[in-house]
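User: two proteins, same treatment. go.

Assistant:
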Amino acid sequence: MATKFKLNDCVPCIAIHPGEIIKDELDAREMKQKELASFMGMPTSVLNDIIKGRRAITPEVAVLLQEILSIDASYWLSLQNQYDIDKANINTKIIERKRNIEIWKIISQYCSIKCFEKLNIIGTKISENIKTIYSIFGVTSVEELITLYSQEKEVSYFKKSERLKSEPINIFSWKYYVFYESSKIQCDTKFSNDNLNNLIDELNHLFVINKDTIDTTKKILSRYGIKFIIVPKFDKTPIDGFSFWQGENPTIVLTLRLNRIDNYAFALLHEIYHVYMHLFNNREQKYISIEGAEINKCEEEANKFAKYSLISKDLWSAFLKQHSMISPHAMQMKIKQFAHQHNINEAIVLGFYQHDIKRNKIVQLYVPCKSNCTQFARIFRK
């Protein structure tokens, strides 16, 4: 199969002046420049300027070379023409490179180049990187990128918040990279907001089994008309989840910042609540869960749902009250019994328990949120 080249790919690194060909011919014929100049009826200095590339080959010179060297005048003129074209292309390419360098310097101030490099989203060719950045942010110029950055609510919020160890540019970049990745996903099922209970039941069953959790989550949510993706967090972006509406379907994104099944379940259910209760009626809104950010009413509602959709509030309060005074070692069996009795993953019960009573004597070791993962292992410190 023939390889197709773009015009710019054929631009040489240097332009070769036809004077170099004249020199090669003289060397091959063992002819001196002075001798050729004499035959052509021109000063040796003028011929030397042509050979050195300081003068162009004119039609008159080409005709004389044809008579003396028996090489067609059209050949010499074509060499001169190609030299002029190559030189112009090289100059244009240099101007373009300089322009791209200036654009890249500005882009680097408004998006996280280092984070994109770590994920191999961009490479080493600046011109291609600029196109990639424009595609990710949905802009056509660096001016549009600056305007987009200045309009971001999250960016303005984090600039004012000194207590958060977050980088506004990284959060901004992560957010639009998520939009970009979501746009690639095709979801053929129409979303309906009247099947929330069925979805929770399916997810809870998945959490209990805890096998191929991420891949199965994608399949389940897709059947309910919800796009689901895992996008690693960028540096200094303490994001757990993000939900928004794009096209005909909502999208839920998790980072696995805390790669545990209890955090995974909580973050997922939190964003599901936003989809069903908030986004469905206001598709322009976007909900991003960032550690340390101010909790508004919508976030508080989503937190409550995420906590009590698997375990009812009354049931959980009664459990904590009944076993509030027992030792951590004895609590191991109580948590296990409670989880099995109500068909809930033990690690989720444990995570809720630790969160509520803030005991540090219980330590869990498990890696439950990766594809093809095994059931978690637990260690209880006496």
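Protein 2:
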Amino acid sequence: VIQYEGKPKMDDQIAAFTPPPSPNMPNRNTALNYVGLCLLEGTTLSEGRGTDMPFKLIGSPFIDSKKLLEAMSPFINQNDVIDTVSFIPRSIPGKSSHPKYQAERCHGLKIIHLENPINWTFHLFETLESLYPDKFNFLKSNFIDKLYGSNALRLTIQAGDDVTPMILGWELNLAQFYQMSKKYHLYP
């Protein structure tokens, strides 16, 4: 288990003279994770705000890190780099004044790299709903619906349904769009 309290190595820092696009998106790897992990903002799970690694640390006081990592193993791509972690979110002026679980020890996962953050996050929600049905929740405001663009994700997870058909539907739609738009591409 990684006990995270310090500052990360900034080897993937965009450039020292380039301001980050957001105070909680300090580098390229964070931006890549954000594609899917931004959906955590609509849940009771910490997305790592209040640490120096937002959208790279995810967790909650109620999570058993090893149990979660084991349950997520079928959804981990061979190129994904994930480990267990404990962290304590703190108020960081200009970045996160009131993070979820402020000053509480959270347990969860440290995300170094995800090959497909969106698919992985869908399976994470499905897994958390299965492991912690009384503790993992979407926020009462249904902010997740705004983040996702509809209520389909929330309703699928709350019903206990498999998210795989949603993922396969995107892949089919993407393939159809690519074929339809091919005649408009300037380059092959």
